[in-house]
Specification:
binds zinc ion, TIM Barrel, 14 helices, about 15% strand, alpha/beta
């Protein structure tokens, strides 16, 4: 099945992991090149990961080629264009400005990205600032203060990324409390590298609005019931889980179980260029692994609009737009 032309939304995509290869290649050349990647082919080859830690290592390697504010504008322009080309109508995009704070001011990074949002009116973009567990609560509280100053530049919420095992949710309770006070929505990567306990803590201690990945919720029946009863949305990133070896095969992914339990989900690419994926490929992989027809996938995509952090009237408008574009009318609703 070909899902490339249908309308799409994305709730879990990292700007720095979505840079088109040619764009990243230009940045590497701008900063003198890297002898390990002599050409575009070798750059793509570098994004093949042994495991989750190897992925983090390459993530950091790539960030050394983003050095100036104009680089953020440059990558944002390229990423937004790439999303428009895939018919993505709306995206909530993670950015991790604190990873660059040694050389750059966080507020000015946000302003640079915001400049690109303003210029790219053919897609609606909201930003989620992904705070980094490894930097610790104190440092990331300072990041939160800084992003709060510029939240009018499209920042809708905060997330929590980095090493899930070494820096568990209990270290960030005050940070999330403060973020809520500032009016930010919240999500946390949980149940990706660590087990079900990490998801429980994200819910109970950080009181998140959504869960990033949530893959390992499959290990705990009580948790699955809780997610179902409380309708806590999960940002699924199936091919990412496959590439970082959180799952061994797509058939192993808890997607179907979440569907059966009526847990709200969205389907996302996480770091599409690093995982060599796209939303169309995610839809295709799931539909093949779980024998879903085109119409069933359409329903899942439309339902996922309700898990975005758009205002209710904006969600309704987007659902109407999707139904029109997919040829779904009230009479023949699946
Ligand atoms: Zn992620």
């Amino acid at each position: 099945m070909d899902f490339s032309s249908i309308p799409k939304i994305e709730n879990h995509i990292h700007l720095e992991g979505a840079i088109p290869y040619e764009t990243l290649w230009q940045l590497i050349q701008k900063y003198g090149g890297d002898k390990e990647v002599a050409n575009l082919y070798q750059l793509k080859e570098k994004f093949k990961f042994r495991d989750f830690n190897h992925f983090i290592e390459i993530w950091i390697w790539k960030n050394q080629f983003i050095k100036e504010y104009e680089d953020f504008k440059f990558i944002s322009d390229a990423v937004f264009k790439d999303l428009v080309d895939q018919n993505v109508k709306y995206a909530e995009i993670f950015i991790s400005p604190s990873a660059f704070k040694k050389n750059l001011e966080i507020q000015k990074i946000i302003e640079a990205i915001s400049g690109s949002i303003t210029e790219n009116q053919n897609i609606k973009i909201s930003l989620i600032v992904d705070l980094v567990r490894n930097f610790g609560q104190e440092n990331e509280e300072r990041t939160l203060e800084k992003i709060n100053e510029v939240k009018d530049h499209g920042i809708i919420g905060i997330g929590l990324g980095g090493s899930e095992n070494d820096f568990p949710p209990e270290l960030f309770v005050d940070l999330f409390e403060k973020a809520r006070d500032y009016g930010f929505k919240t999500t946390a990567h949980a149940g990706e590298a660590a087990g079900a306990d990490s998801i429980w803590k994200a819910i109970k201690l950080l009181r998140v609005d959504r869960i990033g990945h949530g893959t390992r919720a499959i290990e705990d029946d009580k948790l699955l019931d809780y997610l179902s009863v409380h309708k806590i949305p999960i940002e699924l990133c199936p091919i990412s889980n496959l590439r970082t070896k959180v799952i061994k095969s797509m058939e192993e992914h808890p997607f179907k179980l979440f569907q059966e339990k009526k847990i709200p989900v969205s389907i996302n690419t996480d770091d599409p260029k690093m995982f060599n994926t796209s939303l169309a490929e995610e839809y295709q992989a799931l539909s093949e692994a779980f024998s879903l027809n085109k119409e069933e996938m359409y329903t899942i995509i439309i339902d996922s609009i309700n898990t975005t952090w758009l205002k209710n009237e904006e969600k309704e408008k987007l659902i109407y737009e999707f139904e029109n574009e997919l040829g779904i009318t009230k009479q023949n609703k699946y």
